[in-house]
Write a structure and sequence with these properties.
With about 180 residues, the protein is mainly beta. Helices cover about 15% and strands about 45% of the residues. The protein has two helices and ten strands, in the order αββββαββββββ. The strands form two sheets. A six-stranded mixed β-sheet has the order 2-10-9-4-7-6. The protein has a four-stranded antiparallel β-sheet with strand order 1-3-8-5, with no helix packed on it. β9 and β10 form a beta hairpin. The longest helix is centred in the first third of the chain and has 20 residues. It starts with a helix and ends in an 11-residue tail after the last strand.
């Protein structure tokens, strides 16, 4: 059976209409991620303090009974021997925090966390005064989040990038009178 030009045009028009209708459909709204991360400095000098705020939001319909999170340096940060830093404090909604004086660590959040409830922890790290600085020198982390809900019968986990801070060199100050 031979198709006519009109038949081919009708089929093409029908396919184009379906594609157009699919394109006009409302996009599905993405679920809010359970982890929001902010870093207070995009760049810092050796000797500076940087604050990382981790906010867990229970995205489930039942309480989260257990929430654990670790923070680790990325491979590039770990492999650069000139990047020197140590966590100094960990404050917020936590029952246990093992980051102070380390380059990585872990946090257990206060639980239970009600549905849509949030727990926040701020970790601070000090960049060593003798840390390497300049182009391509950047401290970055990733975080692993694990939580249990539905009476401990269900769990979720995931990795999240923390973002980084460029380590820039201090600019020499001009001496007065010279």
């Amino acid at each position: 059976m031979r198709r006519t030009t009109l038949g081919r045009l009708s089929l093409s028009a029908a396919l184009a209409s379906v594609v157009a209708l699919l394109g006009m459909a409302e996009p599905a709204t993405a679920a809010t991620p359970p982890m929001t991360i902010t870093v207070d400095k995009q760049s810092a000098t050796p000797g500076s303090t940087v604050n990382i705020t981790l906010a867990f939001t229970n995205d489930q319909a039942t309480n989260a009974q257990f929430v654990y999170q670790s923070i680790q340096p990325t491979y590039n940060t770990q492999q650069d021997p000139g990047l020197k830093y140590a966590f100094t404090t960990c404050t917020g909604d936590t029952t246990n925090c093992t980051v102070p004086t380390h380059q990585s660590g872990a946090v257990s959040y206060n639980a239970p966390v009600l549905p849509n409830g949030t727990r926040t922890v701020t970790m601070s790290y000090q960049i060593a005064a003798d840390a390497a600085c300049g182009p391509s020198r950047r401290i970055e982390f990733y975080t692993y989040l694990y939580y249990e809900y539905q009476g401990g019968q269900a769990k979720k986990d995931g990795m999240y990038p923390v973002g980084g801070t460029d380590i820039v060199c201090k600019t020499p100050t001009a001496r007065a009178g010279h």
